[in-house]
């Protein structure tokens, strides 16, 4: 039987998972991973602050699929082939144990992404997967049964199967070589980004995290609850990243200029907080306002909001004018901020958009337009919120493609 060749375009999580599993499942298959940069598994390396958020401890397919702003119905089908349980088992069988944190994110017990990288690269070595770095694809063509891959330095490669796992592209023009194969692209827009607040004094609190707040994007239905992190640029943290994912297209249309309102005490509204303030004034009339923190808000954040409302250093509860009290209540329950721009961190964050889902067979990850051409990972129009969901899609799509290719 003649040796068949698979070229995997992209040396990230999805590409390597396809390559190592295809090579393992079919020893007669020659597998080559080509990567345009000089780095392998770069997102794996930086994910989760360098710990690698491998997957999420969710074991219900319907529930898991609700974490994908784009592609929820698609992953609901693909997860039947390879799910979170399979990911955990795959790594465990290769000596990598995963642990679950309180928020459901799963990491290697070693707490370093190097463990995941070493595991995958060892698997590649075991099954003789060849790796080419600094190899950028310029053209992909199919003539009769073979694929011809042309690199930007004019090198030519041939293959029987191709899996495109080149990640998300920020610009539509970067998909041109795939459009030439007859595929349609959902326009790319950034997802999972932070909100910039240029010049706003709240940025002086950078590093402070409020664990339970509600953030709403005004003039929209977008709202999320959870933790917010104040940064040098503005706001980040799980709530902001989720809002940016669910609102990726909407916020792009607004050119990333919009107003958000924050309820720092989401269990209260302005009316119930007013009643609470009256109670505190009666019980702690002589106490200084700045020294009285509410509901576990970080002290510096409480003081900042108090000062923004007109509370002075020495002002006591009994002395607070009603105009200051009303402003303070509004700042605690409905603090408005004008967002101007976003910050994305190229290595870690994702792009919404890519190959349209109706052009891919979810059972095999093969193109419905070109036989033996497969797709995996972020190049497909699927993206999840933060928390291990994008990696799970990478493992799932990479494995399905590998299994289909290996079966020949």
Structure, described:
The chain is α+β, with helices and mostly antiparallel strands. The protein folds into two domains: 4-190 and 350-407, FAD/NAD(P)-binding domain; 193-343, no CATH class. 32% of the residues lie in helices and 24% in strands. It is built from 13 helices and 20 strands. The chain has helices spanning 13-25, 42-50, 61-65, 72-78, 84-93, 113-126, 176-179, 238-246, 248-253, 270-283, 299-308, 322-333, 389-407, and strands at 4-9, 29-34, 55-56, 98-100, 105-108, 130-132, 137-143, 146-151, 156-159, 161-164, 185-191, 194-196, 209-217, 223-230, 234-236, 257-263, 335-340, 342-343, 350-355, 373-375. The strands form five sheets. It has a seven-stranded antiparallel sheet. Strands 6-2-1-10-20 form a five-stranded parallel sheet, covered by helices on one side. Strands 3-5-4 form a three-stranded antiparallel sheet. Helix 2 runs antiparallel to helix 6. The radius of gyration is 25 Å and the shape is elongated. 43% of the residues are buried.
Total domain modules: 2
Radius of gyration: 25 Å
The CATH level-2 architecture of the largest domain is identified as: 3-Layer(bba) Sandwich
What's the helix count? Answer: 13
Q: What order do the strands of the largest sheet run in, or round the barrel if closed?
A: 17-16-13-14-15-12-18
Beta-strand proportion = 15-25%
How much helical structure, as a percent, in the residues? Answer: 25-40%
Mean pLDDT: 95
């Amino acid at each position: 039987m003649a040796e068949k060749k698979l070229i995997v375009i992209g040396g990230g999580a999805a590409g390597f998972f396809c390559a190592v599993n295809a090579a393992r499942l079919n020893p007669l298959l020659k597998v080559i991973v080509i990567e345009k940069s000089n780095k392998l598994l770069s997102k794996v390396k930086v994910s989760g602050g360098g710990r690698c958020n491998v997957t999420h401890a969710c074991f219900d397919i319907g529930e898991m699929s609700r974490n994908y702003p784009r592609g929820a119905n698609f992953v609901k089908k693909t997860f039947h082939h390879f799910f979170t349980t399979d990911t955990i088992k795959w790594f465990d069988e290769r000596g990598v144990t995963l642990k679950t944190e309180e928020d459901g994110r799963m990491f290697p017990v070693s707490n370093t992404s190097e463990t995941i990288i070493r595991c995958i690269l060892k698997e590649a070595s075991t099954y003789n997967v060849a790796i080419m770095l600094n190899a950028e694809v310029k053209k992909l063509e199919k003539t009769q049964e073979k694929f011809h891959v042309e690199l930007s330095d004019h090198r030519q490669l041939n293959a029987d199967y191709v899996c495109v796992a080149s990640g998300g592209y920020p610009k539509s023009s970067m998909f041109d070589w795939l459009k030439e194969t007859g595929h349609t692209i959902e326009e790319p827009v950034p997802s999972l980004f932070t909100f910039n607040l240029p010049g706003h004094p709240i940025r002086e609190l950078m590093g402070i995290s409020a664990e339970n707040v509600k953030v709403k994007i005004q003039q929209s239905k977008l709202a999320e609850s959870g933790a917010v992190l104040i940064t040098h640029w503005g706001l980040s943290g799980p709530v902001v990243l989720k809002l940016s994912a669910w609102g990726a297209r909407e916020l792009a249309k607004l050119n990333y200029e919009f107003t958000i309102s924050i309820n720092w005490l989401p269990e209260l509204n302005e009316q119930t907080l007013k009643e609470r303030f009256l109670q505190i004034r009666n019980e702690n009339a002589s106490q200084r306002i700045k020294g009285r923190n509410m509901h576990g808000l970080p002290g510096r954040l409480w003081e900042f909001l108090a000062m923004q409302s007109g509370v002075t250093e020495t002002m006591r509860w009994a002395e607070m004018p009603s105009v200051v009290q009303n402003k303070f209540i509004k700042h605690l329950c409905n603090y408005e901020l004008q967002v101007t721009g976003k910050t994305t961190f190229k290595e870690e964050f994702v792009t919404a958009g890519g190959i349209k889902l109706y052009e891919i067979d979810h059972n095999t990850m093969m193109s419905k337009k070109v036989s033996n051409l497969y797709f995996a990972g972020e190049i497909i129009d699927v993206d999840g919120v933060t928390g291990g969901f994008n990696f799970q899609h990478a493992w799932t799509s990479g494995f399905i493609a590998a299994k289909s290719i290996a079966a020949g």
